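Section 5: illustrative case.
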């Protein structure tokens, strides 16, 4: 299953070349990831992910230039892989007809009090497995 998030765009997201700057994509992905893990997760009773998750790696493959869309842009998210102490979120940034980028983030659950990575809990794994999909 995929989670879809509609990301609002700002005119200021574009750079001197007239398209969305590559750094802005990271903000879009963050907004979508927070919506899925923190907002949706909390609604479903999985609070732990909002207490500490670190990004260990981002990968973005840009497919087409993205320009300002007044309706915003859609971001589909799903879980690509779950390991003992990390998981991967995959994304597609698109509008109705065009794929602008594919991306992936490696995330690590983190214990803020102990200041160290921790393992994925059974509750978190059950939530993430709902969105686990083969590419």
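Designed sequence:
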């Amino acid at each position: 299953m995929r989670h879809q998030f509609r990301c609002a765009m700002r005119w200021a997201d574009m750079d001197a070349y007239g398209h969305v700057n590559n750094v802005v994509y990271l903000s879009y992905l963050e907004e979508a990831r927070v919506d899925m893990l923190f907002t949706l997760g909390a609604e479903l009773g999985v609070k732990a992910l909002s207490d500490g998750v670190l990004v260990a790696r981002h990968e973005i493959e840009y497919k087409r230039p993205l320009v300002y869309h007044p309706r915003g842009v859609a971001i589909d998210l799903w879980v690509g892989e779950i390991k003992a102490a990390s998981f991967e979120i995959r994304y597609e940034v698109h509008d109705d007809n065009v794929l602008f980028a594919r991306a992936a983030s490696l995330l690590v659950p983190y214990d803020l009090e102990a200041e160290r990575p921790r393992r994925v809990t059974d509750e978190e794994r059950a939530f993430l497995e709902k969105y686990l999909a083969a590419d």
